[in-house]
């Protein structure tokens, strides 16, 4: 697909992905296997509850079974890992998602790393991160994978371009930087300690905002004609990019909502289906 569209519509990309997923689910079910995603929610954070519900609804639309494990906020790291290990051992579960963030007293990294690599469909384990850096992950981190998927769908060139990533989290900023580097982009990864951030962003042919601050990236930071990918979602239904001002400068931009989000959810389900498919091939 070629486009001179300014708006990179994530829902369009997700809908395209769903056609292939529905066909693959039907094929797997013929072998007596029902793809299943287990989501774990610790505590009662309203945003997290919404995300888990959205993922469950998306699974239902595609014929994928979903299990929701809800644990109290006072759950310990050890108790959480016990629940994860139960799901690791359950052969009917093909993907495990631990909803981020967890309560502060929990060792989130230990919990993520308890997830079996074969079921790490959200790409959050240390092993998955390492495989992703080498371009060998079966299930790369979902939001980074969604960003690459959007760029590819709209045939936006990555190779040879200067990509500026704002954010360095281990499940978004760092893995997407590695994925862009593996696609022969020149990558600058910025963070909270970066000096003269606006000047660095202004050098980017592709700018990816993953900083977790509403309306943080301003239009004056954007080089004319740059591609802007907003991977943020904040209270008030806004992203990390000041959409109106960045729209004027960019050649292409993702909206919030309706940009990266739908593709992230579609990618999560796609990975779950692929995990089930890999099992069906061994059956």
From TrEMBL:
Quaternary organization: Homodimer.
Name of the protein described by the UniProt record: Bifunctional protein FolD
GO cellular component term, pick one: cytosol
GO biological-process terms attached to the record: L-histidine biosynthetic process; methionine biosynthetic process; purine nucleotide biosynthetic process; tetrahydrofolate interconversion
Domain of life: Bacteria
One MF annotation (Gene Ontology) recorded for this entry: methylenetetrahydrofolate dehydrogenase (NADP+) activity
Catalyses which reaction(s): (6R)-5,10-methenyltetrahydrofolate + H2O = (6R)-10-formyltetrahydrofolate + H(+); (6R)-5,10-methylene-5,6,7,8-tetrahydrofolate + NADP(+) = (6R)-5,10-methenyltetrahydrofolate + NADPH
Organism: Paenibacillus xylanilyticus
Keywords on record: Amino-acid biosynthesis, Histidine biosynthesis, Hydrolase, Methionine biosynthesis, Multifunctional enzyme, NADP, One-carbon metabolism, Oxidoreductase, Purine biosynthesis
């Amino acid at each position: 697909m070629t486009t001179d569209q300014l708006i990179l519509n994530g829902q369009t990309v997700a809908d395209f992905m769903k056609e292939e997923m529905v066909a693959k689910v039907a094929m797997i079910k013929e072998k007596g296997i029902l793809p299943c995603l287990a989501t774990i929610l610790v505590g009662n954070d309203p945003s997290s509850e919404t995300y888990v519900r959205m993922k469950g609804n998306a699974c239902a639309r595609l014929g994928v079974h979903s299990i929701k494990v809800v644990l109290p906020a006072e759950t310990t790291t050890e108790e959480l890992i016990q629940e994860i290990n139960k799901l690791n051992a359950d052969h009917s579960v093909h993907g495990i998602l631990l909803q981020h963030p967890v309560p502060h007293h929990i060792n989130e990294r230990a919990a993520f790393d308890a997830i079996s690599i074969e079921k790490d469909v959200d790409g959050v384990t240390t092993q998955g991160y390492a495989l992703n850096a080498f371009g060998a992950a079966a299930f790369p981190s979902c939001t980074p994978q969604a960003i690459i998927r959007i760029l590819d769908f709209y045939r936006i060139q990555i190779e040879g371009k200067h990509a500026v990533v704002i954010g360095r989290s281990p499940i978004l900023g760092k893995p997407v930087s590695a994925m862009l580097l593996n696609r022969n982009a020149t990558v600058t990864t910025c963070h909270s300690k970066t000096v003269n951030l606006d000047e660095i962003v202004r050098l980017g042919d592709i700018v990816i905002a993953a900083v977790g601050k509403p309306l943080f990236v301003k239009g004056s930071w954007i080089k004319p004609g740059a591609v802007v990918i907003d991977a943020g979602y904040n209270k008030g239904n806004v992203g990390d990019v000041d959409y109106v001002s960045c729209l004027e400068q960019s050649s292409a931009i993702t909206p919030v909502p309706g940009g990266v989000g739908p593709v992230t959810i579609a990618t999560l389900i796609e990975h779950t289906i692929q995990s089930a498919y890999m099992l069906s091939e061994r059956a």
